[in-house]
Design brief:
Elements lengths: L2 H17 L4 E3 H9 L8 E4 L5 H10 L3 E6 L3 E6 L2 E6 L19 E4 L2 E4 L3 H8 L3 E2 L2 E2 L1 H11 L5 H7 L4 H14 L9 H15 L20 H5 L16
Parallel strand pairs: 2-5
Antiparallel strand pairs: 1-2, 3-4, 4-5, 6-7, 8-9
């Protein structure tokens, strides 16, 4: 990261603090202090509620910064020269909206010399569980977060967040157990028992009559062919060949 980029990020954090609009720093800048890494990042991730997204973008626009609404469903950018930061209020698959709950237990950290709130470990983990693209995979970050911050993760809240998508949580927990067999007990036994119980209950359900591919919750591009050519239903709607 260049000195100019660091100056831009420090300036931006000061502007955000002055605005008094609630925001949280996420991504690598939150991940590093949690797990004790110094991984280089190409940008900065700022998380806010959807209702505050236009306010943040407007403030920077009025100050002369270049701004973009990259995707009105979840993402915008503030840019200066070659540096930029993302303003995020949801996930790409629209399953992870930022809510007031995210701010309740946010810890404070100095980033680029500015005191800010970080995404809590629980919400940082939640923000990463669906990032599985051929060019980007955050499963290893999830494993490291569990290893280093298991005491600070609210496991009941994670289960509540992922209630409909409990299989994704189970996948990550099994991945953690495989990576760190000596650390298996860091994950609460009750949580694994609950997820395995759901898996057993699911075995007794009849198979879905609709051909479904939920892979697009991970990556719309990688699973495009499933919907476009192979007859699977998209995230919503009927399968292309249903009823024929």
């Amino acid at each position: 990261m260049t000195e100019q980029a660091e100056e831009f990020y420090a300036e931006s954090l000061k502007i955000l603090n002055k605005s008094r609009i609630p925001f949280l720093v996420g991504g690598t800048l939150a991940f590093n202090p949690y797990v004790g890494m110094s991984r280089v990042t190409k940008d900065m991730d700022i998380f806010c509620k959807a209702s505050d997204f236009p306010k943040i973008v407007q403030i920077f626009s009025e100050l002369g910064f270049k701004v973009q609404t990259t995707d009105e469903r979840w993402l915008g950018k503030v840019l200066k020269a070659r540096a930029f930061f993302d303003v995020i209020f949801n996930s790409r698959n629209a399953l992870v909206p930022v809510t007031d709950e995210w701010f309740a237990k946010a810890p404070t950290e100095k980033i680029f010399g500015v005191e800010v709130k970080l995404l809590p470990p629980t919400e940082l983990l939640w923000s990463k569980v669906f990032v599985e693209h051929r060019l980007k995979y955050d499963g290893n970050d999830v494993a490291h977060l569990i290893l280093k911050k298991y005491k600070d993760i609210d496991w009941q809240r994670i289960l509540n967040y992922m209630d409909q998508y409990w299989e994704v949580l189970l996948i990550h927990l099994l991945n953690f157990r495989f990576i760190y067999p000596s650390e298996r007990e860091l994950v609460p036994r009750w949580l694994l028992d609950e997820l395995l119980s759901r898996l057993k209950d699911q075995e007794n359900l009849p198979t879905s009559k609709t051909k479904i591919c939920r892979g697009r919750l991970y990556s719309t591009e990688d699973f495009e062919i499933d919907v476009a050519q192979w007859g699977f239903a998209d995230l919503i709607g009927e399968a292309p060949h249903a009823g024929k």
